[in-house]
Write a structure and sequence with these properties.
Blueprint (H helix, E strand, L loop, with lengths): L1 H11 L3 H12 L2 H23 L2 H7 L1 H28 L14 H13 L2 H10 L9 H28 L8 H24 L3
Length: 201
């Protein structure tokens, strides 16, 4: 219960994962936002597994490995920001969500997975939190249980975000509001990238 409370508090704090799900829910099919969530959830389970194997410790202790992961995350967030701003500039009435080809489930899933996997702060989260909840004689199984727990908690919260997003989705039938959404989302992704680039972990 303590771990669940911790990950819930972290989940409700806006971050790249939440922004990705929110933007997809507003601009694409609901199923594509769910695909984002599935990718994010798998990312948590994978993080938990490599943490149990000690790879997270190696990454955190190796300046080169951690810096590489950090800058891959920065570049990916900047790329997401760029693509959203580019979409805003090219947006017309014919390219609104209801009138354009939707993203594929696979693409949306990979976006969620990469957004989670390329966040080095999750590595540090697991290193700082997991030891309090993992037994040495069952590190892998306990870590996977915690990873699945976090995936379920975060997925539940993100599903609530999708439900709330549907209430204002109608605004996207207006090109002006749709462009604003793209610009804001792109700018926030870039801001997250800049914050990650300037962080000293």
């Amino acid at each position: 219960m303590a771990f669940t409370a911790i990950v819930f508090v972290i989940a409700v704090i806006p971050g790249p994962n939440a922004l990705l799900v929110l933007f997809t829910a507003l601009s694409d099919k609901k199923s594509m936002a769910i695909a984002n969530i599935a990718g994010v959830a798998l990312g948590f389970i994978f993080h938990a597994f490599i943490s149990a194997l000690g790879l997270s410790l190696i990454i955190a202790q190796s300046a080169l490995a951690f810096t590489l992961l950090k800058w891959l995350g920065v570049l990916y967030l900047l790329w997401l920001g760029y693509t959203h701003i580019k979409s805003a500039r090219n947006l017309t009435a014919l390219s609104l969500p209801e009138k354009r080809n939707q993203s594929s489930f696979k693409d949306s899933f990979l976006k969620g997975l990469l957004t989670n996997m390329l966040n080095p702060k999750i590595v540090l989260f697991y290193l700082s939190i997991f030891p309090q909840f993992v037994r040495q004689d069952s590190a892998i199984s306990d870590s996977l249980i915690l990873g699945v727990t976090q995936a379920l908690v975060v997925s539940t919260w993100f599903c609530m975000i999708i439900i709330m997003a549907q209430a204002i989705r109608a605004l996207l039938t207006n090109v002006r509001y749709a462009k604003i959404l793209h610009y804001v989302s792109g700018s926030v992704f870039i801001a997250f990238g800049a914050k990650l680039a300037s962080s000293k972990i």
